[in-house]
Amino acid sequence: MTTETTIAGQADSGAGAPAAPPFRYGANLAASIERKWQDRWEAEGTFHAPNPGEPGSEREKVYLLDMFPYPSGAGLHVGHPLGFIGTDVLGRYLRMNGRNVLHAMGFDAFGLPAEQYAVQTGTHPRTTTEANIARYKEQLRQLGLAHDDRRSVATTDPEFYRWTQWIFLQIFNAWYDTDAARARPIAELAAEFAAGTRATPDGRDWSALSEAERRAVIDGYRLAYISEAPVNWCPGLGTVLANEEVTADGRSERGNFPVFRRSLKQWKMRITAYADRLASDLDRVDWPDSVKAMQRNWIGRSEGARVRFASGPESIEVFTTRPDTLFGATYMVLAPEHPLVDALVPAAWPAGTDERWTGGAATPGEAVAAYREQAGRKSELDRQENKDKTGVFTGAYAVNPVNGEYVPVFVADYVLMGYGTGAIMAVPAQDQRDWDFATAFGLPIVRTVDPGEGWDGEAFTGDGPAINSANDDISLNGLGVADAKRTIIDWLAAQGTGEGVVQYKLRDWLFSRQRYWGEPFPIVWDEHGPVALPEDQLPVLLPDVDDYSPKTYDPDDANTEPEPPLSRALDWVNVELDLGSDNGDRGFEDYTRETNTMPQWAGSCWYYLRYLDPTNTERFVSEEAEKYWVGKDLRRGPDDPGGVDLYVGGVEHAVLHLLYSRFWHKVLFDLGHVTSEEPFRKLFNQGYIQAFAYTDARGTYVPAEEVVEDGDGGFTWNGRPVNREYGKMGKSLKNVVTPDEMSERYGADTFRLYEMYTGPMEASRPWSTRDVVGPQRFLQRVWRNLVDEETGRSRVTDEVPDDDTLRALHKAIAGVREDYPALHYNTAAAKLIELNNHLTKTYASVGVPRSVAEPLVLMMAPLTPHIAEELWSILGHEGSLAYADFPVADEKYLVADTVEYPIQVNGKVRSRVVVPADSAVADVEAAALADEKIVAALAGAEPRKVIVVPGRLVNVVR
Q1: Rounded CA separation 643/676 (Å)
Q2: What fold characterizes domain 1-51+767-893?
Q3: Distance CA 417, CA 189 (A)
Q4: Where are the domains positioned within the chain?
Q5: Could you report the per-residue pLDDT of 680-718, keeping only the tens digit for each?
Q6: pTM (predicted TM-score)
Q7: CA distances (Å), 629 to each of 166, 670, 738, in order?
Q8: What phi and psi values does residue 84 have, to the nearest 5 degrees?
Q9: Residue 414's closest CA among 375, 374, 461, 449?
């Protein structure tokens, strides 16, 4: 049976070349086939994944997810789709094996580039963003990705960010109960205070507190709260910058303006409450060990002690992992931003103050102010890595609780407010940074750990017995580090000057942006602080504004305040609202809206849940859909946390995005909104596409596609020599190749196959356009084997394949079945190429048997779906092969009839012999010794020994 192709002949011929056959598979024919099948898949909803209760949902479900892209104006380059194609291949394979596969694509669409473009041109960011999304969708469609297009979302869609705002309110209206080790509604906390079952912070009865005092107490427990936080303030840009946007010399990456570290009121998320669960639950997910290690290091769990040093009426609290070294604490250091600094600074220098400590200032206040300004111009990275230790004396002393000695208190920028308590006890003999500071400022150095004989170094950071560590009540001398720690912690607790604690490097999440293009907070302000909007007033939509840029100031004026673009939309900011019974049912009152916006991370924290139920107007996701797609599966074991079955994306998101998503998901779980405890069961990090880039004599990048080889191993651009380098593909390096041009030149299937064939999914690999022709030739050979290039008709036969072909076929089926679910697409492709080479050699002139051609097409379908669909149609099938049964190997063809033995003579291979696979050792030996080449090698002599390794080799020893 044969069926004519429905594609008109569109063979490719170069100018002046002989006319190619009308149905030769080239770029034009490929493009026509690809458009046809993309249109058909879309029209028929081929890849629509049914939700629970819908026909098809009885199949075993699989949820595949790609980290969704930010839609930039530059569009996709060939590096972007690597992971997208990889998940598509797996999804197609699983559908053919009877699974209900959910695979969708959305867009992380709030972001700084669209806003910067708006500032420069006046174009609304939504206009730019929606145009970019349309461009991305067109590019992704061209690749034939089997997405359920009904489920696509963008974080900028009001119907999406309505639920982002709703989730924020769940976090705002929750607190973390450390006794229950979970989040609970904030209303339950207020009820406990009112009932007297929980004491207020100052011990007063709840009824004795004013409304403002009650609000302040409750706000201090919320998981989303307002706090003074040290930030990177850039007056020249009028905004706070992320650390990544600040250069090492403390200037803005954009515009090169001065950046100052200062404290501003910001929204924060209490992610630290979940530190233990975030760390321990990593054992429950199937993630790369390297990513787990990065998250654990970021969380930074460490055990130690909290110690209090009295300083006048104040108490300076430090956290230390080495309380056993307290007797060696000879000074203290506060971060410049520490809130106690101003309270500690006296009016004048104490008598006898070392001039090296004063910074040349007349008073401590002047010294501290000048130093703060100096430190404020440095980035956190510069402060951490700068080996030149600077600082000034505050003029205050504190009492070391173990020996009663007065130690000077300094301000120095090598201590950061974001780590620990923002204050340290400095033990120079056991910490090199403290040693350097003490040496520079002439401070005492007391060893408290014996470094052993022969130590001639500076600070000793190793283990050893304690020395110089005793007072009238306690002696640590002679104890090892672990015993000394336990002993001193117990003593501190008994004295009331400290206690053992677990500390984390993880800091609460700064959640504010002074920008326009982001989700508005569902918060208004009254005279007592922030007030949550009722759910029926969501979404809070972004207002239209005339100017998208924040207010800028004199670049050198650090004492200015951010003025976000939304603050100028006065009709939007100042509102009269009735906030309903949740806020006392007070009727309409005047409020001020929050004018910061959420960071870009907000939408990406939960988008994977919205794919499950994107049109639901009653809930962010229905209970049934969440439980079906990401709920816990006890078949996986009692500790299964639930979550997406496979999440694929770059390792650069190993910490922040993945950590933030886990935090949001755990809050939703605690509050009963989801049944799964983790968002992503399994994580896979794909590699990167790398490419050559070229710079001219000025070091400026030149367009890579215009560079030519000069014939002597060098390269030129416009006739001038250029230098070649190798790195990640990107617009700034001018080495971008787009999938559009690859699809136009070779076809999307060729491009897909090239990306999957060039190396393992997890490995980075080089891009070489000239090598794309290899996968194209494979597809052309398959096409010629199955299709008559003159007529477009099938040329398969109903002949019975020979045994060699059946063995080749079933070997390929077995191998590909192992490779696809393991994401070993390069080796799967190699097996298909090997099978097709056999068919070309055996059947080129007579036509491939149908019983071999159809399994070959089905195996190709996940990698090259368009040509596979077309060949399936040409072979006489009416429907799509998307849900056709994937071939299964017949075991009897996987057992070899014969085995080839290499024959070594004194360790050197001299010949080979083929014998039946079930031959006895004696028969193998006899066959080897009868071989003509071996007979000649032995020259009539009897071998001293013959060793037969069954199934592998024969070794003859003369």
Answers
A1: 6
A2: Isoleucyl-tRNA Synthetase; Domain 1 (1.10.730)
A3: 30
A4: 1-51+767-893, 183-275+510-600, 301-504, 692-728, 896-957
A5: 999 999 998 888 888 888 888 888 878 888 877 788 998
A6: 0.85
A7: 22, 19, 34
A8: -60, -45
A9: 375
